[in-house]
Design a protein that fits this description.
This protein is mostly helical. Helices cover 59% and strands 7% of the residues.
């Protein structure tokens, strides 16, 4: 009997950490929407919050910038984590992290349709909050206990 009580207690503690990580990831993401994600040269019009990058960042894929794809993957990781599907949550969060990290491979970013380019400076908080959000989602996926469906596979 003591072994089963210890297992129940351990699972309850893991579930508490799972909830904290999931909520923390979402809060960090919401926070990154209201701060400047990065600086691009000295152009003040590009100093809008992360919400502008969320809404228009998909256009960067036309120029070979695929970091924006981390957003729908992060949303997917949250959905799987909320439904306790560990493998899918970890996979989505890992791929999201890889896409998000791909942004640092670029020195410049298009700033208009021409396209004119400006130098990327990652000295703003938004990008780092975004990465922290994805990292916390990945930690959450690791903390999830495998569900019954995953044990059968």
């Amino acid at each position: 009997m003591p072994d089963s009580i210890q297992i129940i207690r351990r699972n309850a503690e893991v579930n508490r950490w799972h909830s904290r990580c999931l909520i923390g990831s979402i809060l960090l993401y919401v926070g990154c929407m209201f701060v400047v994600p990065y600086n691009a040269g000295d152009i003040p019009s590009l100093r809008s919050g992360g919400w502008a990058e969320l809404l228009g960042g998909w256009m960067g894929m036309l120029y070979g910038y695929y970091a924006w794809l981390a957003n729908p993957l992060l949303f997917t990781a949250w959905m799987f984590a909320a439904h306790q599907v560990r493998a899918a949550a970890m996979a989505a969060a890992t791929i999201a992290m890889l896409f998000a990290l791909s942004f640092v491979l670029h020195d410049e970013i298009p700033i208009n349709e021409a396209p004119d380019y400006a130098t990327i400076h990652l000295n703003a908080a938004g990008y780092w909050l975004w990465l922290a959000s994805i990292l916390l989602a990945l930690v959450d996926g690791v903390l999830l206990t495998p569900n019954v469906k995953e044990h059968r596979q």
